[in-house]
Amino acid sequence: MDLEAKKIALRKIPHGVYVVGVKQDSQVNAFTATWLTQVSFTPPLVAVGMRKDTLSFKMVEADKVFSVNILGKEHKPLVEHFVKPATVAGEKLKDVPYRLGKTGAPILEDAIAYVECEVREIANRLGDHAVVIGEVIEAGVRSKDAPALTLMDTGWHYGG
């Protein structure tokens, strides 16, 4: 296989950029995600890729809930903030306005839209990321016409 061609081809798959909120008991955390898709209409299901060696993934495994915060194109600095690993759970949220949603997962005040999910399945235990499938149990829209931030807007390269 031409490894460079593989990398380039996989990086051409369009991705959004999201902040995923998680919780375990009274602790909250959030991270930047780019691997997210809707996988079912009935029931409404989304799948998100999560690195398995992170605190956030362990929190999702424990409490089985997460939020997906969809951000506008002007929010690149905000998603950059959530890329870096936290040394303490919730540390990345301390200076970011948020509220707890129906599931207890954090909803960012700057999100143009959000969904809250209850985990229904965790798959792909072989790779470095798990595919976490959640049923959408709550949603909100703050800005109906604002375009969502994409990986292409950031200039980042992830995957391949």
Q: Uncertain spans, ≥5 residues at pLDDT below 50? A: none
Number of domains: 1
SSE pattern, N- to C-terminal? HEEEEHEHEEEEH
Query: How can the largest sheet be summarized?
Result: 7 strands, antiparallel
Q: What's the total helix number?
A: 4
Please state the overall shape, judged from the principal axes of the Cα atoms: globular
- Approximate strand percentage: 35-45%
| Largest beta sheet: strand ordering | 2-1-5-8-9-4-3
CATH topology heading:
Pnp Oxidase, Chain A
| Fraction of residues in H or I helices | 10-25%
The CATH architecture can be given as Roll
Strand element count: 9
- Kindly name the structural category: alpha+beta
Task: Kindly provide the name of the CATH class.
Answer: Mainly Beta
Cα end-to-end separation? 13 Å
CATH 4th-level superfamily: Electron Transport, Fmn-binding Protein, Chain A
* Rg calculated over all Cα atoms: 15 Å
| Average pLDDT metric | 90
Compact description:
The chain is of the alpha+beta class and 160 residues long. 18% of the residues lie in helices and 39% in strands.
